[in-house]
Automatic annotation (TrEMBL):
Organism whose genome encodes this protein: Vreelandella rituensis
Pfam families: MR_MLE_C, MR_MLE_N
SUPFAM superfamilies noted in UniProt: Enolase C-terminal domain-like, Enolase N-terminal domain-like
Protein name: Muconate cycloisomerase
Gene3D superfamilies: Enolase-like C-terminal domain (3.20.20.120), Enolase-like, N-terminal domain (3.30.390.10)
Domain Mandelate racemase/muconate lactonizing enzyme C-terminal, chain residue ranges per copy: 147-244
Biological pathway: Aromatic compound metabolism
GO function terms (MF aspect): chloromuconate cycloisomerase activity; manganese ion binding; muconate cycloisomerase activity; racemase and epimerase activity
């Protein structure tokens, strides 16, 4: 008799951050993750994570909506279904539920984790195999204070933790933001790559002014300077400047990717399992990018260890990513809910080993940080 999905539990888990994390649309002091525990009739449990940034500040799904929509709409579509045909289960979810990509990503991760544990294979092995076991990881400087950011970057360099840095800008007037970035780049010099993420905060004419100054200051990559839906504007910026544009909020899935490359976009795409509804969706986008010669970047929505590990298994199956990854989410949190945290070393992170995601929940910590 084939194994079926028996039970799906969702937990809201609140973990404090190590310092305030300031983005153009919100400041985070805590990260809320939706943890999925999916039990199957063979006794195996699959783990998944659905996480966003700043409640509803970043996108249309909040932690509470992710939990509620899984519990009410998505989980009932999976309960009683055969566990192993993940393509059929994805199609079933997509047929009955529109959008809700973070919720779908959390469930797909739990299906893959369980399938890997069942077959004794890592998620990367289920996807055809890892091409590398160690991936580069950038750090985001977002304390809101230029001196603190420089100290933080110097420490990370000395620790051999990170040598690529992303600065979150867009909350202040453009000249003030550019000054902040230029001072940090000047202090770090050639030792580090410095990039910025504007998180949609500028209109196109502000972007033209800001990007010119950032390019002159030696910034290597400009992420999502203008609103997500302004594809034509993003293409114009990409054609206008030598410094490459990184599309983040603008590119959710393969269709967005196709639209951008058909319009002549020649920058890079930030891949996130949460934007694309999971690993399979994000790999479709990666394949469009590869076919078009668009650079890849392994992105995060600041997930904890479970979502980060799921992303790492996906990125490990791809050819070298031109812009590396930013899978530092667990390092921004004061604590972890897995027994053995991911191993960050030598400016990157090791792909976790073992069946499935390669992680085990720490039940005490999970109980401690779960919302009652
Ligand atoms: C984003 O928009 O890139 C990734 C790193 C970080 O600090 O915020 C995220 C979201
Ligand atoms: Mg971004």
């Amino acid at each position: 008799m084939s194994t079926i999905i028996q039970h799906i539990e969702t937990l809201l888990v609140d973990l404090p951050t190590i310092r305030p994390h300031k983005l153009s649309m919100t400041t985070m002091a805590c990260q809320t993750m939706v943890i999925v525990r999916m039990r199957h009739s063979d006794g195996i449990e699959g783990l998944g994570e659905g996480t966003t940034i700043g409640g509803l500040a970043y996108g249309p799904e909040s932690p509470e909506s992710i939990k509620r929509n899984i519990d009410t709409y998505l989980a009932p579509l999976l309960i009683g279904q055969p566990s192993s045909n993940i393509n059929a289960l994805r199609a079933r979810l997509n047929r009955h539920v529109r959008g809700n990509m973070i919720a779908k990503s959390a469930l797909e991760t739990a299906l893959l984790d369980a399938q890997g544990k069942r077959q004794g294979l890592s998620v990367a092995a289920l996807l055809g195999g890892a091409r590398r076991e160690h991936l580069p990881v950038l750090w985001t400087l977002a304390s809101g204070d230029t001196t603190k950011d420089i100290d933080e970057a110097l420490l990370r360099l000395e620790q051999r933790r990170h040598c690529d840095f992303k600065l979150k800008i867009g909350a202040n007037p453009v000249d003030q933001d550019v000054r902040h970035v230029a001072v940090i780049k000047e202090a770090l010099g050639e030792r580090a790559s410095v990039r910025v993420d504007v998180n949609q905060a500028w209109d196109e004419s502000t972007a033209v002014r800001g990007i010119q100054m950032l390019q002159d200051a030696g910034i290597e990559l400009i992420e999502q300077a203008i609103p997500a839906r302004e594809h034509a504007g993003l293409i114009r910026l990409a054609k206008r400047f030598n410094v490459p544009m990184l599309a983040d909020e603008a590119v959710q899935d393969a269709r967005d990717g196709l639209d951008l490359v058909c319009g002549g976009f020649n920058g890079a795409f930030a891949l996130k399992i949460a934007k694309s509804g999971g690993i399979y969706g994000v790999l479709e986008l990666a394949h469009v990018a590869q076919a078009a010669g668009v650079g890849l970047y392994g992105g995060t929505l600041l997930e904890g260890s479970i979502g980060t590990a799921a992303s790492l298994h996906a990125w490990a199956t791809l050819p070298e990513m031109a812009w590396g990854t930013e899978m530092f989410g667990p390092l921004l949190l004061k604590d972890d809910i897995v027994v053995k945290p991911l191993n960050y070393t030598e400016f990157g992170v090791d792909l976790p080993q073992g069946p499935g995601l390669g992680l085990t929940l720490d039940e005490d910590k999970l109980a401690h940080y779960s919302r009652k």
